Amino acid sequence: MSATNITTLLAKTKDFSLEETLEFLANEYKDKVVFSTSFGQEDQVITDFIAKNNIAITIFTLDTGRLFQETYDVFHRTLKKYKKQIEVYFPEATAVESLLKEKGPNSFYDSVENRKECCFIRKVVPLRKALAGNAVWITGLRAEQSENRNDLELFEYDANFEIIKFNPLLKWSLQEVEAYLQEHSVPQNALHKKGFVSIGCAPCTRAILPDEDIRAGRWWWESSHKECGLHSAKKE
C-alpha cells in the first residue's frame, strides 16, 4: 500500500459527508470494510451512521473476557435498537489459560510488559483475526483523545495490521460526540455518567477527575503511553 492510495482516497472523498464516505468505501471495497466497536461514545456514533443508513459494512467487537457488565448492557441495547448483527471475536482459550496458570489473573498490575502481554492475548491477536482479508478498518479514534493520537490522519495505512485505516471522527470534539448521541437517542454505556470516558476492561479502567486527561482512567497505575497495541505508532 503506497501513499498514493491514501492520497487518492482523500481526493475522492474530500467533499463527502461522513455518511457518503462510508457508502463510498462500502462500494469501493465491497465486503472488505469492517468497523471495530468497543461500544464507547465515538463507536456508537459510527454504529448509528452505519446501521440507520443500512450501509454494507461489517461491525465487530472484541470480547476480552474482562469487560464491564455495563458494556454488555449497551451491546445488548445496540442490537435491539438497530437489528444489525455484530460479530464477536474472543481471545484464544489456550493462550488465556496459559497466562492465568503461569502468572495469575492480575499479572497486568505487576509491570508494563505484563500488561502489554495481556492486551496482546486478549485484544491484538483477536483483532488480527477480525481484520484478516479486509481492506479498510474503520475506527472511532479522535485526535483529542490523547497526545499519541494528535498525528493521526483521516485515512492512513496501518502497517502493523496491513490495512487502510479510516478515522471518520478524527476532528470531532467530545462535545460534538455527546451532542450527536443525545440528538439521535443512541444507546450509551451507563458508566459515562459516572466519570468514565474511555472504557476498556474492568480491571484496567477507572473514572477520571474533572481536570484529568481523557485517557487517565486507562491503566492508571502506570506512566506508559496508555496504548494497548491496537493503535500503535505506524511502522516505517
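The record above closes out task 2.4. Task 2.5 opens with a second protein, given below.
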Amino acid sequence: MRKVGRPRDQTARREALVSAAGRAIAERGLEALRIKDIAEAAGVSQGSVLYYYPELDDLVLEVHRGAVEGYLASRQQAYDAAPADDPAARLRALLDSGLPSLTDDPVHGLLYELHRRAGRSPGHAELMASLFAREVALYTTALAVGAATGGFTLAAAAADLAHGLVALEDGYGLHIVSRNAALRPDRARELLLAHARTVTGRADL
C-alpha cells in the first residue's frame, strides 16, 4: 500500500517566514538583509526559505503587505473601541494610534524601512499609497461623523483635513524613529493634538 505523506501547511510556513523576515529587517535593516538572517530567525535552513520564496524581493513584499494590514487593523480597532457617541474620543483614539510610542517602535520602524523600496518597486509603491489612502479614509470618516453630529466645527473639508493629519503623523513619526531629540513621542503627540483642536474647533481633544 502506498503511504500518504503528511499534509504540509504551506500557508503557515509562509506566514512564519514572513514574520521571521520582518524581525530580521527590524534588526539588521533592509539593505543588509540576507537569506541567512531570515533562516536563522525562522529556525529553518536557507534552502527552506528559498523553496517558498525563490526571490528575496517577493518575501520582502509580503512582509510589507503584512505590516500594512496589521497596522491598519490596529488603528481601526483603536477607533472602534472608543465610544461611538463621542466623536472627540474616537478622533483622539485615532490620533494616539498613529505615532510611534518609542524611538525603537518595531511596527513604525519596519514600515518606514519598507517604504524606502517604494521608489524602486511598483509593488512597494502601491502598498505605501494604499496605506496612506486608507489612513486618510479613517480620518475622513472620524471628522465627517463628528461634524455631522455637531461635535466638530471643521476648518476645511474633512478629506482635506484628513490628508493633513496623516501627513503630520508620517513626518513626526519619521523624526521619532530617527531619534531626533527635539521631537520625542510625547512632544509629537502634543503638537498633533494641538493641530487637531484647531481644525475641529474642539478644545477638549
